[in-house]
Design brief:
Blueprint: E1 14-16, E2 19-21, E3 24-26, H1 34-41, E4 45-49, H2 58-68, H3 72-75, E5 79-84, H4 93-102, E6 111-117, H5 122-131, H6 133-136, E7 140-145, H7 148-154, E8 162-166, H8 174-177, E9 189-192, H9 201-204, H10 215-222, E10 230-233, H11 238-247, H12 255-269
Parallel strand pairs: 3-4, 3-10, 4-5, 5-6, 6-7, 7-8, 8-9, 9-10
Antiparallel strand pairs: 1-2
Helix pairs in contact: 1-2
Length: 276
């Protein structure tokens, strides 16, 4: 592990293809106002589904439309990663074109992502996305993975520019199977579902005296290793965006805190139990 000595800020930038993107990629929100507020706070990287969870991403689409209504100059400073989970290669471009049509002022998808890829299908899903760029205007491509071995191989895939992989206290295998493959030459790695598995004290059986990490503590947990380029996060309301803004001014988690969250993940998974 390469521990961080400080957290990336919202105004920091990561190279993804020809783009410079914020290390915090904002995805699904509950309040459309979060999207333009996140941009004003320094985030320029947004993740939106073109098909799966379409209703869930409605506030994100509305927020992007409000942001793009500010004009072309603002649109050109925003990087939208449009993800499609359609696995049939012949339909790869369709959902992304429909997403562009649905969001006024979007004009193009800057980055296209093949969503939920596995080793068995990555090779047939990437070529249609790259070949269809003329239809959706993308100049960079990537994929999201639950399959860690496939994600590790994709880090060195020269057809891609960014890799998204699942990681949280319940799914920590990326530490062992993906992070050791990250180098300065590989595609940047963003982690997602980083705050998944946050539980109440009652659900975990924790006494009141024990620390219960917040959603931003789980973001810190995912960012603990400096080989992680960034995270896909979901500040669902303005108060959670403010939490994120405060978080980046704080210190990274200590090793004891990281190990403690590991244990909470094991408690949530039922692989360990509390003793009286």
């Amino acid at each position: 592990m390469s521990p961080r000595t400080s957290l990336p800020t919202l105004a920091d930038r990561v190279r993804v293809g020809r783009f410079e993107v914020s290390p915090y990629c904002v995805g699904g929100v509950d309040d459309a106002d979060v999207i333009p507020a996140a941009f004003d706070a320094g985030c320029n990287f947004f993740f939106v589904s073109a098909d799966m969870h379409w209703p869930r991403y409605s506030p994100s689409r509305k927020g992007l439309a409000a942001l793009f209504a500010r004009g072309t100059a603002v649109r050109d400073r925003v990087v939208v990663a449009a993800v499609s989970y359609v696995a049939q290669p012949e339909f790869a471009a369709g959902p992304i074109c429909e997403l562009i049509e649905d969001i006024p002022g979007m004009k193009r998808a800057d980055i296209t992502l093949a969503g939920g890829c596995y080793a068995r299908d990555i090779d047939r899903r990437i070529p249609p996305l790259t070949l269809a760029s003329e239809f959706h205007g993308a100049s960079a491509h990537g994929a999201t993975f639950h399959d860690r071995k496939a994600a590790a191989r994709a880090l060195s895939d020269d057809r891609l520019h960014v890799v998204f992989a699942r990681f949280n206290a319940l799914h920590r295998g990326a530490r062992r199977e993906i992070l050791p493959k990250v180098t300065a030459e590989t595609n940047p790695l963003f982690l997602f579902t980083t705050a998944h598995g946050v539980r109440t004290r009652e659900a975990l059986g924790l006494p009141e005296s024990n620390w219960l990490p917040t959603h931003t503590d789980h973001y810190k947990y995912a960012l603990a290793d400096d080989r992680v380029a960034g995270i896909l996060c979901a500040p669902r309301r303005l108060s959670e965006l403010e939490d994120l803004q405060r978080m980046v001014t704080e210190a990274p988690l200590s090793q004891p805190q990281l190990k403690y969250i590991d244990v909470l993940g094991d408690l949530a998974a039922g692989t360990v139990v509390l003793r009286d």
